[in-house]
Amino acid sequence: MAQVVVVTSGKGGVGKTTSTAALGAALARAGERVVVVDFDVGLRNLDLVMGAERRVVFDLIHVVQGSARLSQALIRDKRIDTLFLLAASQTRDKDSLTDDGVERVIRELRPSFDWVICDSPAGIERGASLAMRHADLAVVVANPEVSSVRDSDRIIGLLDSTTDKAKRGEQMEKYLLLTRYDKNRAERGEMLCIEDVLEILCIPLLGIIPESKDVLHASNMGLPVTLNNPASAPARAYNDAARRLQGEQVPLVVPSDKVTLFSKLLGRRAA
Amino acid sequence: MSTARPSFKFRGGSFHALVVRPESPIEAWLADVDVLLARSPGFFAGKSVVIDVSGLSLAKQAFLGLLDELSKRDIRILGVEGANPADVDGRVPSLVRGQAERPDTAAVPAVQSPQAALVSSLLIDAPVRSGQAIVHPEGDVTIVGSVSSGAEIIAAGSIHVYGTLRGRVLAGAYGNQRARIFCRRLDAELIAIDGHYIVADEVEPHLRKAPIQAWLEGDELKIMTMN
């Protein structure tokens, strides 16, 4: 029976889709059966990051509205055969998602997978609230800056009040994934430091993903960053976060790209 | 033999009320009230009003007529000041203070109006998140945790925050000048007591991020560190 995870943030552009793909791929590479579901109907991106945009026939809306079966809409990843994608529709909007339809899709996905990871749209409207409603666990993605942290705080409030789990009187498990973290800039006071963010949000930390050009490079390649370059700093950070999701105790360090004299020389020559 | 003893509790209390002083001639004064109500229909809504007739010498009939006119305008009268208790029959509010020049007449003892009782306090054992609003029209609010930027606490009484206060807090919001605000660390967007407020920009630098208490001194909102 699957754990249903929502990857959410409130604010746009903080790395929800990147994180969904990276965590999904990392879990699948560890042998887990994973489906990543794109709830960003109308602005779909997860298929691009997963490199599946040219294989989408049926999407979440088709399944929600009953015009396609789940098995027809699930797209298997080309590289890892335990990783699946349920894409969002680009031509519809979030009003096409019905409460009953979404509930049915999640219920049908649960028995066949170990992890159902829902990529929430930005905002706090219908799409975002449907993405979080059936979740067992939430990964709150935030950048170390004030507006992102405040929006995440708002989302945590909604996770604690509007989800099914909250309405049953249970406590929603919430973890913070701090993305685009730049140690040097935080030390110079140009962004919030980790302690500040944790002090405001008061939820346990799942991982710290360093700012890196590898992330952009991987999404341009249509690959989750954990598959494109597993040795890169963000990939190692996402892998650690995925292991923590599986319940492993992994010491928390911010992986960084090692800058050796050799690579510095090389970089200078290339520039 | 054991019989259940009926519970009987009482306590002293003092309440704020709006005192309205009608002027002679009453008809012209009532017309002014109508103009005021036309401009702001909710002026007397929810307020407890005491009318002070000590400046008027009204016969019993005229006095009862004035009460009728006021109740027609939905002005709830909690009490009367300066009336002759002999003019007061059963349908008139019971809080009556007699005229000074007639000390021989016994005043009817004041009774407490049920809506004015400030009793219950609210304890919240979790951080208050951005977008959440805690509204407590009865008494004090205590938060064990932080109040986030974008969150709001509105209380009839005092507000205590055992954490960082980053949001907006409005103490004494239903008219209580004695309400106070306490927090472990002040970083608030706005703090207000009984409608007197200051915003973050107006907070003096040495008070920022400090443990503070805030209270009203006359019309001035004061803040002091509590180190």
Structure description:
By secondary structure, chain A is an alpha/beta fold. Chain A has one domain: P-loop containing nucleotide triphosphate hydrolases (Rossmann fold, 3-Layer(aba) Sandwich), CATH 3.40.50. The longest helix of chain A is centred in the N-terminal third of the chain and has 14 residues. The C terminus of chain A is likely disordered. Chain B has 227 residues and is an alpha/beta fold. Chain B has 2 domains: 98 residues, Transcription Regulator spoIIAA (2-Layer Sandwich); 108 residues, Pectate Lyase C-like. In chain B, the strands form 3 sheets. Chain B has a 6-stranded mixed β-sheet, with no helix packed on it. In chain B, strands 6-8-10-12-13 form a 5-stranded mixed β-sheet, with no helix packed on it. At the A-B interface, helix 7 of A face loops of B.
Strand content of chain B: 25-35%
Assigned CATH class of the largest domain in chain B: Mainly Beta
Query: What fold name goes in the CATH topology slot of the largest domain in chain B?
Result: Pectate Lyase C-like
CATH class of chain A: Alpha Beta
Radius of gyration of chain B: 23 Å
